[in-house]
Fold:
Amino acid sequence: MTDDAWERLPEGIRRQVDGYVLQDRLMYAVRLVWETGRAQGVGLNLAQELVSLRYEHFGDRVARTPDSPLDLESLAALASGIRARVVAVEAVWDGDTVHDWFVELRAITEDPAGEHGLATVYWGTGARALEAEGADPGPLDPHAAAATRAGTALADHLGVPFYFASPEVPDDEAPRWRDRPATP
Structure:
């Protein structure tokens, strides 16, 4: 069925989809397949499957988005470039239709108040980082475990607290560092 659906797409559309895949622009490719294939019965699930097969077809030729660095030296360099006083390092769950759940490492600042992205930790990023360190994720998913390790190391280096409201369960509505209950 997938070969048929792919072949029914016009050649120009197939070439454009392959271009998006080679650039690792998954959502553009899926949207194009879905919108142009809808008249032939291509639903969203089939569009995702077709694009996934194109990713498999191209393999290492896909220009993948590089992993965010999670080593202390790189994170410390990123934090040192922030023009505000870092008061905490926070890990926050987020998600999208491309990557599912992922963890954002952020520097929380004051003077002025704000937050600054330091790293995005996808499942694969976390698994690769833990494997490179020979570390066990324990009960956490790899992206949560790697974010916790990297965030804790950076917070210790900076002498500030590390905060991750929900490391065990993805929750993009978990209390944030600034919203946490005050401790006596």
